[in-house]
Design brief:
79 residues; mainly alpha; 3 helices; elongated
């Protein structure tokens, strides 16, 4: 099995999905910082950008969660 095919398989594995969820959630810190700065500067356009970014993060996490459920995860937290 080549390294490239192993990497592609990791993306669809449970561990790969957990890693993707963690990195996506980590992006929320950046968006929160952006929103806080935008509010402090009363910058409506940056605040709107932060809101759109937050929606993208939420959507991404929902998609990853759905993929995790499709793998049939036995984790108690996922049901």
């Amino acid at each position: 099995m080549s390294k490239l095919s192993k990497a592609k398989g990791f993306k669809k594995s449970k561990n790969g999905l957990y890693l993707s969820m963690a990195t996506t959630a980590f992006g929320a810190f950046s968006v929160a910082k952006q929103a806080k700065l935008a509010r402090a500067e009363s910058d409506t356009l940056r605040l709107l950008d932060a809101a759109v970014s937050a929606a993208a993060i939420a959507t991404g996490l929902a998609i990853l969660y759905r993929e995790l459920k499709r793998l049939g995860d036995d984790d108690v937290l996922l049901g």
